[in-house]
Fold each of these.
Amino acid sequence: MTSTATPHRGRLSGRLIVVSLGVPAAPLALFLLSLLVAGGETNLQVLITLGSLFLTCLVVGGFGLARLLTTRYHLTGERLELSSGLLFRSRHAVPPARVRSVDVTANPLQRLLGLTTLRIDTGGQGGGGLKLDGLTAADAAELRRRILQWRETGHALNVTEDAGLICELDRAWLRYAPLTVWGVGGVLAAAGSVYRTLHEMKIDPLELGAVQDLVRRFGSVPLWYGLLLATLALIALGAACSTLTFIENWSGYELRRAEGGVLRVRRGLLATRSVSMEESRLRGVELVEPIPLRWAGGAKLNAVTSGLGDRDENRNRRALTPPVPRAEALRVAGQVLTEEWLLNRAGLTPHPRAALRRRINRALIAAVLVAAALAGLGLWLGQAFVTAGWITGVLLAPILTVFACDAHRTLGHGLRGHHLAMAYGTFARRTVVLRRDGIIGWMVTRSPFQRRTGLLTLGATTAAGDGVYKVRDVSVDQGLELAEAAVPRLLAPFVESVASNSPGRRMRAGAR
Amino acid sequence: MSDLRLRPPRNRVACRSIGWWSAQAAVFALPLPLTFAILWASIPPTRELFMWLTLISLVPGLLYVAVMPYWRYRVHRWEVTGEAVYAASGWLWQQWRVVPLSRVQTVDTLRGPLQQLFGLSGVSVTTASSSAVRINGLDREIGDELVAYLTSRTHVVPGDNA
């Protein structure tokens, strides 16, 4: 390969100037808008708010500009060099053997300008990797090709693009899209920030004509009818938002097993994402069934793997499937883990009754707290709230108790071949299988209630995913035996047997 | 019939830790009642309100300062064997951690200003997992020895780099 021998150098695209200048333009536009709305008048508060925003944006834009002017990359035979920064100079050099994957992504703004982000995963800790943010699409594709080619000459990893397809988007899955609860929250958050922005600009949205009109109409129908309509509207808006998010996130989704032991997820409509996971770093999978989705027989599958970056990045990048039918999620899990039955909840060891008591206690405490909060407001605002508090408490207690029973029924754990399986959760039911050789320590926790009732929570720490995966509320014997069976000889030196006469005060006894 | 249990780790932390935890608890729990007390003393018309607020915030604060350090001292323990680090911590909510030496990646010493005042040091043992094992309130010399031992051991035992 001759092309890898010739050095290749380059810089970010000049189009980034537009972005850098665009950032401070936003508060200016807001200021003009406020002048327009307020009829040419302004006041100190608006000036201060927008002025400080403008300054912040100026600094952000300046940094962007500095980055654009100083970032260089340089690919030689031995390494890829990256230098950037004006005040804080940084220089990275990566040898070919360290490059695990090269992904090209673009967010909507970048798409508009024909720019992309090239991300080089070097498999280091704490999200080790390099990012070149703001290359032209052509430059990025060229650089990616060269890096991959260059790596192949370095060692014999072969990355062919279209090997083993595991899963591909099915239009029918769109029916699960409205069932993610984030939609409603998103609508509320958006409404909140619009209100705040207008408020900061001294415009009270409640006094706008359209809103006043709406309030008057709302007042003319019975309260329950109005509330019902408002709730329905909110849910409809939320479902629409969820659907749009689903389309944006998951259009063009495919999961492939590329050669060289890499699982690659591609997805995204406006912002294309491509995530590569090395199978050797995969420690297991997690099946998530949040409540509306579960009722419709759907589930999501996440990878439990290291090398996806820090906690937030891991959250964003770990998805192996969108919300899909449960059977499909299990099939994909089977393909990824090579054994399908691992995720089966049937056959898991149930947890003791004390775990149920703990959940019911929690449910009742939650119901009492909500009722008490409402009743407390009532002492201050009037009798109606006290009544509302009573009714809420009486309704909430049995509902939450049902959830508590469900949570207990979900609890389970077991050893399955090379894996440790655990299930928990009711609002979002999670089933996790974790490779036993991926467990690098134990974390046993006990609350006062758990110490009194002889329970413990056994956490398996691992390099992958959330870092700790917990088997919740097992009896002490169960938990310690499980730990010993899963990873022999790790916990055993610290476990002793005692004659069982006072189950309550176990474990604390040694502390005198 | 016999039952299993986790035995407490062999070594206690330094008993000066009680002082350290008390100081920490005081810094955390006392400013609020103090503020209320000053208001109580300085604004006569609101006397009754601030008296109650002072009492309400002071009683749990004092209880916390009085109980937490001793309780913690009974629980916090640590032990290092040829194969693993074993540490217990917490008071109401308690935690036992085991990490095999073969998986230890870095060993750090942390010494906050208060801890320095009491001549204590904290050792944090990090693996590839995101949560580190912390042993706080060690006597300074013991802490240094522990770090030296762990650092030498982690080079010896062949490990995985996850």
Amino acid sequence: MTGPRIALAVLWKDIRLDLRTRDRLGHMAVFSALVVVLLSIALPTPTAETRPWLPVLLWVVLLFASLLGLTRSLQTETEEGALAVLTLAPCDRGWVFLGKGAANLIALLGIEVWTAGLFSVFLGLAWGPALPEAIWAGLLGGVGLAALGTMLTTMATSARFREFLLPVLLFPLALPVLVIASRATAEALDGRSVPGLWWGALALYDWVFVVIPYLTFDYLLED
Amino acid sequence: MEKRIVRVGHWFGALALLGLGLWTVLVISAPPERIQGVVQKILYVHVPCVPPAYLGFILTAIGGLGYLRTRRAAWDRLALAGAEVGIVFCTLIVVSGPIWAKAVWGHWWVWDLRLTMTLVLWFLYVAYLFIRALAFGSDTARTFAAVYGIAGTAVIPFVHYAVRLAGGSAMHPSTPASGGTLPASMAYPLLAGLGTFLLVFLYLLTRRFEVAGLESRLLEAGGSSEDH
Amino acid sequence: MGYLLAAYAVVLGTLSGYAVRLARRRRALLAELTHAGHDPRHGGDLASPREAEPGSPGEISS
């Protein structure tokens, strides 16, 4: 089998698993709904001054939701030894990474749409004309989070205290994605155009964290 | 090769001691700054901690790359030594900075580009040491740590960019670390500090490297000692 | 003045503390290795223990 076909097979397998059991997506959706409702009760009515905080909150919720999803897949991988089987894939294992990353990305994009909707319902975030740029921020930020998450989950699988280790590994690396994506979302919501340099930096970051795991996944899956 | 590194380490230690003497004399004899007074002398101990921290983190990435390419444990020991000694210096930056800030600005922690940046770096390399400690199996741990170390160094410019984007003001004095615009009486202690701390760093690095080598030898010899 | 002394004490104390810790660990390891019958000082190059002690399992399997 060629690399791209392996990637597609892995992607398809993960999507089917998500759709069949539904617990990963379900956990993430319930989690972000709970947090958003909690925020809508606890936050004072947003003023002009505090409105820019909402995109940051949105991205923090997304980060934690994706962490929840990753922890869930961490458990599936270890319990069922799925990763061990994947190492037998007769190709460059970078493609396995791309397949798993794409599956994580699709789940994350679903959660992003869901959470963005919740924010507009419960917190009155009006997407309106900001939508195209918000979609870009969601896509580019999602790629970064999914790539990082996939790489780090693979590392954490074979470690002690996995559920503790994963956020410790993830948060410092996710910081640039979080800051740039939430700033871009905030700019778009404010009706300003987002500087091209921000998009460039975010895209470059995504590229780096797709390439590093792609090149090193062979080593990560070795044992 | 490793033996030579260890032997050179002793020389670094001796030179570092000489440098410490020179640095102490220069720091004591440096005039107090006009506005900040004597507290400004924290500069001579704060700034010299910066290059060793960054150097340690870069060595971590280099060691990681070398390990992934050649699979020789010596590269991995270099990465470990770089990260651990780098973290020590990074901690000292993060601690000595606020002491100066408290004395001069009146606040321990003020949002600032370099301060935040250093803190994020600190978290990154603490995570690196965590993965070394927690991953099962020594080969696995080494591989994961190597990839994380490389990723950590690749992320530094992005963190810098993001933190600059997020923040407003930069509270750090814009004087370059080289002390180019300082008068000679203040530039010399700073330069002596930079040189000395670099030597201290190299000494600690070689020592940590040697200890890591001894640890793995002991493990191999069937020693009773547990890992770390 | 207090702040100044505190900063210098923290930095120099930490560095020397770390150096002492490393030196102690090194001495303990050397002693343990000698005790185990593998004289580290004459054991050859640290980088290639396999050459130094034929028959011992390799450190890394490539």
